[in-house]
Amino acid sequence: MYKYHCLNPIAPVGIERFDENYVRVESPEEADAILVRSASMHEMEFGKDLKAVARAGAGVNNIPLEKCAEKGIVVFNTPGANANGVKELVLAGMLLAARDIIGGINWVQEHEEDGDLAKEAEKAKKAFAGRELDGKKLGVIGLGAIGVRVANTATHLGMDVYGYDPYVSVDAAWQLSRNIHHAKTVDELYKECDYISIHVPALDSTKGMINREAISLMKKGVTILNFARDVLVDSEAIVDGLLSGSVKRYVTDFPTPEIAGVKGAIVIPHLGASTEESEDNCAKMAAKALRDYLENGNISHSVNYPDCNMGSKEEGSRVTILHRNIPNMLGQFTSLLAKENMNITLMTNKSKKAYAYTMIDVDAEISGNVVKRLEDIEGVLKVRVIV
Ligand SMILES: NC(=O)c1ccc[n+]([C@@H]2O[C@H](COP(=O)([O-])OP(=O)(O)OC[C@H]3O[C@@H](n4cnc5c(N)ncnc54)[C@H](O)[C@@H]3O)[C@@H](O)[C@H]2O)c1
Ligand SMILES: O=C(O)[C@H](O)COP(=O)(O)O
């Protein structure tokens, strides 16, 4: 029986994927697996049984990835599962920035009691006139699951789209419309574009990337859209940009006291992935990854360990070892099993940066003593036998 805990509400369609071999527990300390959306796990103490964390979503900056890796806890996310939901809200954000739809709706609400509302509206509407997206230049920074979708869809609105991503994956590059201009530097994109939308993860290398210097390179009256993370943007620089008029609009999915209420800011309460479809997709993908890891030891879409798949566990035993990516680990595992006269029927070893994962199928039962000796090997972080 596996125990799981949900740190945030997770869509029922995902939870239903856990069968009678699973029980939901109220306390995270008891859990074998945790499902989470945006709740911060940085201050959490992890229970001794915790084997995996699944982020039902894309961004993993709420999870201490290194600490988890050191404790042999595999962290998964659900790449692309909410990308369409975010893309649609980015498009809505661009339209809200281009036309004063919010100002117009507010005006109607304020005048709803007026007897001659329709006539008054015709007089008032010139205050809310805007511009069209057709023919404007959009720069997309980060061409992953969301950025590619935003870029491609914007071309259908008649926008001239520039994309920048020095680490673009082969898959994403295949999906990108041939009509997107390849910006070789981010400065080129800053100089060209009327709208700039950022879709990169929050990393040390990306935090604060939209700062004073970046804004100084952008066109006067630029609209900046941030549906990725608040920390990517220097909020003081944005507020000054909005007040001076160098930034016309800042559309963000991340409300902070610094930005909420500033004229020209359109602040949304983190709704990018809050659609029925995205929530369902993320929950299903997260539950599937957790089950395959707990039941078979397979890893797919992990952010701190390598993906590794040996199919379903068959006869015999499967031992899985999370360990450091250092020389001679595999040699030590196989010679230990050989000394025990154990026949290896299948084996895989994969690495990702400082960490590695080895899965070994043997045609006999693995004793507690063998597990203990594997655990004692320098560099081994967690050993699990799947029966
Ligand atoms: N508002 C929301 O509800 C919501 C929903 C999903 C994701 N997000 C945020 O959006 C981010 C992107 O999501 P995604 O699903 O597209 O992720 P993704 O991993 O598919 O794409 C991220 C892309 O950014 C690129 N990148 C990394 N560093 C870069 C840099 N310095 N310059 C340019 N490109 C760089 C990567 O190469 C990758 O292609 C997530 O990390 C998350 O923080 C927000
Ligand atoms: O990174 C993500 O997937 C988004 O920011 C969505 O977060 P949420 O699951 O809390 O809506």
TrEMBL record:
Q: Pathway it belongs to? A: Amino-acid biosynthesis; L-serine biosynthesis; L-serine from 3-phospho-D-glycerate: step 1/3
Which Gene3D superfamilies does the annotation name? 3.30.70.260, NAD(P)-binding Rossmann-like Domain
Coiled coil ranges (UniProt) are: none
Database matches in SUPFAM superfamilies: ACT-like, Formate/glycerate dehydrogenase catalytic domain-like, NAD(P)-binding Rossmann-fold domains
Question: Which CDD domains does the entry link to?
Answer: ACT_3PGDH, PGDH_like_3
Show the catalytic activity: (2R)-3-phosphoglycerate + NAD(+) = 3-phosphooxypyruvate + NADH + H(+); (R)-2-hydroxyglutarate + NAD(+) = 2-oxoglutarate + NADH + H(+)
**Family classification:** Belongs to the D-isomer specific 2-hydroxyacid dehydrogenase family.
Its name, as the record gives it, is: D-3-phosphoglycerate dehydrogenase
Q: Which organism is it from?
A: Schaedlerella arabinosiphila
